[in-house]
Amino acid sequence: MGQVTLPGNPPIDVVIKRSARARRISLRVSGIDGTVSMTLPRGISEAQGVDFAREKADWLRGHLAGRPDLVAVAHGVDLPVAGEMLTIAPAASGRAIRVSEGKIWVPGPAEQVGRRVQSWLKTLARDRLVQASDRYAARLGTEYSGISLRDTRSRWGSCSSRGGLSYSWRLILAPAEVLDYVAAHEVAHLREMNHSARFWALVEKLDPEFEASRRWLRTHGAALHRYRFDIDADAR
Q: What sequence ranges are listed for the domain YgjP-like metallopeptidase (predicted)?
């Protein structure tokens, strides 16, 4: 895997990959972080791939320009929590983060705001995902072996063959019913480790309105990854 930069305004970094299964050159712009990747099949040289990417440079810039900007979490930034947009504000006193008056009050140095808010969100996400998972597991008369949180980009949740549930902590940024749907989806896998008609019948039993939440994730889910907790506000 290599990388090339296409000249222009702005220049575009393109990650080059090779695939034995690919039949033609393909370009992809990640909806999560804007990474541009190009896949080359066998028999196509890197130079040929670069020529192809140059021909598509205007198309790539159009897609990149239409992406929402990354948001560095800091004082004054609006952040969705359980679907409610709250503004991060400095707290004059206290040690714990609190929410009131439409604000997330964060004590401590400004340079630590992103990390502190992320830690707070993870704790909140775990509490709510445990509650939802417990509720749905009880309805099905089953149990799970544990819950873990990750910052996955390819999926919002998973269920292992041993009954372990894993979730993206960023679900706490989505509306509450969306978080509940993902919990219902993964708990249903404790009974059906597939996506058969019987599986979806279980999901509907647990969450009759799951289709609306599923559509929300398809439409808005990628935008939850635009919030960054590890970069300074000056880097936006």
A: 23-220
